[in-house]
Amino acid sequence: MTDTDLTGALEFTARLVKREARNFYWGFMLLPPGKRRAVYALYAFCRLLDDAVDAEDDARPPPGAIRGRFERIARGAGADSEADRMVSLALADAMQRYPISPRHLEWIIDGVLMDLAVARYASFGDLQRYLFGVASAVGLACIEVFGHARPEARAYAIALGYAMQLTNIIRDVKEDFRRGRVYLPGEDMARFAVQETALGADNTGIELRRLLAFEAGRARRYFEYADGLWPLLAADAVACPRALALIYGALLGAMERGGFAVLDRRFRLPAWRKLLLMLRARLAGPGRLAPARGVCDNSGNEKGLLRE
After folding, report:
1. What is the pLDDT of residues 101-110, one digit of tens each?
2. For the domain that residue 66 is a member of, what is the CATH number?
3. Looking at residue 179, what DSSP letter applies?
4. For the chain, what is the domain count?
5. 138 alpha-carbon distance from chain centroid
6. What's the burial of 19, exposed, middle or buried (CB within 10 Å: 0-12/13-18/19+)?
7. Residue 236, Ramachandran bin (φ over 0: left; ψ between -120 and 50: alpha; else beta)
8. pTM of the model as a whole
9. % helix / strand / coil in the chain, to the nearest 5?
10. In the chain, what is the straight-line distance between the N-terminal and C-terminal CA atoms, in Å?
11. Is the same domain home to 202 and 279?
């Protein structure tokens, strides 16, 4: 790999992030250049993988082919396109500079590919495996870039991934349903008497609002637990995940104040609000909230799943 190749790859991933990462971009801006480039590479890998899985059925290769493609990108063992080559080069540079484990990338691939094999989740325990792969595994890779002081940082990173992905699930109920996917646990839907057909309606019924409020409470507890992460991260990087937690927490708050009417409108934060939250994260000290009891197994074993 020449310096010219690497420069082109880093420019490619930076452009991709700026174009696609509507929320993450604000947090990434707070990182020093070297760490920012590495996180850009991780985001670009995840973005290409998401796009491959979300492609139309007639244009999407079988799951085994998608897995093989992204394993090659992760190993730097060949590329199917120029975009794949750029991401592979940027990712190889990131893995050379920071202790990102290949298993983190394997877990991400496993999680995203679940969307092609699993369309419903009977329990929250079942959903946790999905949350871990598509969100927490990304966080585990990112904290290796950020730098962290103790192994328990992994448990907090897992919790933050759960919280952020649950926020996405609440916001995207209708969009996901129209794609044939229901992430709200079946046991919770039964508890609140929500029928699947209600997820595709134009108006958010009271039963669904109550269910989403319940899931939001679950997300809040994970956000609260994840506050334990901040004092464990390197000082030059902590503002990035803190900004993301603030942005996603504010999005969750906006949905709460809007009565969880997620079928009636799409909730977004304006750019000025994200900027203010970014500044707040930059100015914040390393303080934390007390852990929410029973939210997380704080064993530091990242392969384990967090408990409620």
Report:
1. 999 999 999 9
2. 1.10.600.10
3. T
4. 2
5. 7
6. exposed
7. alpha
8. 0.91
9. 70, 0, 30
10. 46
11. yes
